[in-house]
Amino acid sequence: MTTPTPAALRPRMAFSWLGILPFAGFALLFLILPTMNIVLGAFRTPSGDFTLDNVARLFQGAIPAYYLISIKISLASAALGCLIGFAVAAAVTLGGLPRWVRGPLLTFSGVASNFAGVPLAFAFLATLGRLGLVTVLLKNWFGINIYAMGFNLLSFWGLTLTYLFFQIPLMILIITPALDGLKREWREAAQILGASGLQYWRMVALPILFPSLLGTFALLFANAFGAVATAYALTGSSMSIVPIVLFAQIRGDVLQDPHLGYALAFGMIVVTGIANGLYIWLRVRSERWVK
């Protein structure tokens, strides 16, 4: 059996690169070029001259408050999504639940993590709106009026609750492989040395999982910070989060200022870029332990 020479492998390797051309073209047209256009537009005037005024306006007026409320919602949904998603994934992976539960749960998580936009907003309005199914049932059957108690779906916690529908499944999908990577030998060694279950999690498992947990938190934060369709369909203009304000600046008839919109989008790119960069760096660190 003869080994192919490097010269004979070159055409085969060149041909194999053709497989990624559709992906490269898609990324170029719908990701790289639009991002470059946004970045350039943030530093241009309507006449095309270079300026820093658009970026400077991000620190003026009510715009910092828009970023602050967006960051708060993203932090709240990411934290709750991590806590609940980790508990569910740990119960399925390490708990005593039947093995057949794992498959349907991961399948549902894969679908639910991508369920957003107008359908998700309509689903929550039909469920927890003022005339939603759960709201009416609680009021008629148990005499509980959640809106009289202060709940409002079109509010900070209402939007956070809606975001949890795709944040929790995303957490489950990402953290499950990390939980699978915890070796049984580590728990057995801890038990042999006299460690309790709580000590094993506090001194062995959680330190190993910490990069994955923190990285997933950063990813969930970026996922919520960039969500616009769900928030706009659910709250309209009643909540001034950055994606909705950005939409109003670019597409609105009254507040239209495209270059300020470019600057708002540039600020979102910076925030989500930092979060995603942190996720990638921490994921690389966590994979060392999984291996």
Automatic annotation (TrEMBL):
Pfam families: BPD_transp_1. GO terms for biological process: transmembrane transport. GO terms for cellular component: plasma membrane. Keywords: Cell membrane, Membrane, Transmembrane, Transmembrane helix, Transport. Residues 67-279 form the ABC transmembrane type-1 domain. It is found in: Cell membrane. It comes from the Bacteria. The chain crosses the membrane at residues 65-93, 105-126, 146-179, 200-221, 227-248, 260-282. It is a multi-pass membrane protein. CDD domains: TM_PBP2. InterPro entries: MetI-like, MetI-like_sf. PANTHER family: INNER MEMBRANE ABC TRANSPORTER PERMEASE PROTEIN YDCU-RELATED, INNER MEMBRANE ABC TRANSPORTER PERMEASE PROTEIN YDCU-RELATED-RELATED. Belongs to the binding-protein-dependent transport system permease family. CysTW subfamily. This is Acriflavin resistance protein. The lineage of its organism: Bacteria, Pseudomonadati, Pseudomonadota, Alphaproteobacteria, Rhodobacterales.
